[in-house]
């Protein structure tokens, strides 16, 4: 059952008090701290106090779990998982991306999942997902994750565009997951340049103590120094934007009409982009300013279009033009 008494504030309060008492805490101070944030009704709190023997209870028998503020139980109570929680966990473990983490389904072998992946229909997602079940891919992911956690360098070899091989000894910064592309990317610093690598393109990946370096095929030069002209940077990025990240993010400014919870959905959909500003323009219109990279453009376009009439693009100009183009094409197809 979803609505069950074990989820009530009464059971929660008793559990918190017993945990504090088992830890040897006594006095009014710890009692208040244990119940902080529960907002217990006065009648519930009085019942808890009487049943635990914290206050005298005439003609009412206590649970005999505490005496003079001390716990009489030897082990702190633990809330067991309900069947519903077990079924939900079994469903989550069916996600193919779980293979990237050493998670066992021990104890759930005989539990029926609450739902299966086939029950979820995903749209606006690329069909070229990462190979979640591939042993080599899993090994690369674990090596990268371990290097990030332990602050180690990596030597990474990967295939860039047209199948050319790139090599970098880098300091991994973070792993980024794209919900739309269904892929993981590695952000790293290599020889004063920031690189972004799709994990599915990695050929080899090992922990290294070698000096930082970045080796690119001939014709794909490194990112120009910041002092050089922007035109040179733009020319470079047009040829190699997937391998070396943009150093100057551009601003995305949109106005959201807060209908059908559009504002809440927009903040969730764009949550992994750096947020600069959210401000109210009127009672129902909100302006959101984000920082995006050049290679995020396809994903940004898909996400903006998914909101339909509830989002209006203010900046950048290329996105305004692309949205207008898509709308014109759609109207032409409909004979409008």
Number of domains: 4
Task: Assign a percent range to the helix content.
Answer: 25-40%
| Poorly predicted sequence stretches spanning 5 or more consecutive residues | 223-244
Question: What general outline do the C-alpha atoms trace?
Answer: extended
Sheet with most strands: 6 strands, antiparallel
Radius of gyration: 28 Å
Mean pLDDT: 80
Topology as H/E string? HHHEEHHEEEEEEHEHEEHEH
Structural class from helices and strands? Answer: alpha+beta
How many strand segments? 12
Could you tell me how far the N terminus lies from the C terminus, measured between alpha carbons in angstroms?
Answer: 52 Å
Q: Can you walk me through this structure?
A:
The protein is 31% helix and 23% strand. The chain is of the alpha+beta class. The protein folds into four domains: 5-71; 83-119, no CATH class; 135-240, no CATH class; 250-333, Alpha-Beta Plaits (2-Layer Sandwich). Strands 3, 4, 5, 6, 7 and 8 form a six-stranded antiparallel β-sheet that branches. The protein has a four-stranded antiparallel β-sheet with strand order 10-11-9-12. Strands 1-2 form a two-stranded antiparallel sheet.
Q: What's the topology here?
A:
Blueprint: H1 9-22, H2 28-34, H3 42-51, E1 66-67, E2 70-71, H4 83-92, H5 135-150, E3 153-159, E4 165-178, E5 183-190, E6 193-198, E7 202-208, E8 213-215, H6 230-240, E9 250-257, H7 262-269, E10 274-280, E11 285-292, H8 297-306, E12 311-315, H9 317-333
Antiparallel strand pairs: 1-2, 3-4, 3-7, 4-5, 4-8, 5-6, 9-11, 9-12, 10-11
Which terms summarize this structure?
alpha+beta; about 325 residues; single chain; four-stranded antiparallel β-sheet; six-stranded antiparallel β-sheet
